[in-house]
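User: Small ask, check this?
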Amino acid sequence: MKRRKHRLAAAALFCAGTFLFAANRAFAQDAASSAPQNGPTSALRDLLMAACAQNQNDFSRFLTARNQASFAGLTPPARVAFMKRFVLLNEPGKPSVTNNPSGRPTVRCDTPAGAAEIEIHGADTHDNVAFLRVELREAGNSSATPVSVNMGLVREDSQWKILSLGVVLLDLPSLEIAWDAEEAEKNEQTAIVALNEIAQAVEAYRRKYTRLPESLAQLGTPAKGPVSADSAGLLDAALVAGSRDGYSFRYVIVGGNAVGAPAKFALSATPSIYGRTGRRSFLRDADGTLRGADHQGAVGSETDPKVPTPAPDT
């Protein structure tokens, strides 16, 4: 439960961004007790439901034209990470909506790990800009203090689009530069870990079958029946397919000899989309030394600087 409270409290940190949106405070309060179907309240409701379900197509409908183009250019994990910021839940959920007696909607997002409720208050609207206060709380916990955030929307081509979250102006072309750098750094670290996983699986295969596997496919889990030399059950499906977390992996037997202990192998990892999912290419050479450098997405070299190898799992 403490972890859930920490997750809700993270909204306050997200709101402390560097892009400030100076808004006119003389807004007219919505007079209607229920939200018009084409108004800012219904637009925000539908955006939150799309964020809950992590439905990228529906979510994109509520982005400005400038932000839509940048959102489409983000990697799938980055798009999901962006949508998570609106509901503070990691897994895709099932959204539902209820209205209180005054007609204000509450979006509920149910996931296997828990649920959140987001109550949308009345809109302060002036010309083509509207601000709405939302309160996000853990579902079923009446004692939890809700997190209150102001969300801004702008009318573009007669449709309401999300403009700001808290004090952060959602200008994705500017924000995606920082997000790409953050994702690339994270993916580089997970690629190093993945190379270590593959190397351990290859060595485990050698110990059991006294030879190296011919390909990563032989390290995968059998579709049915017991493990065998063709499906040893030593590596997850993503790495068997040669791609995980923004990196592509390759395995080769050095010297063409797959028999006996003297046989060696090399592994490489290259960013799937250079500059977005990663910058450095990594090479685990035949002697087991891990090296890495920026090769503009090409395979690494045995002359690259050494990279610390993660300690093996115990």
In short: The first strand starts at residue 28 and ends at 29. The chain has two domains: 2-170, 183-294. The mean pLDDT is 83.
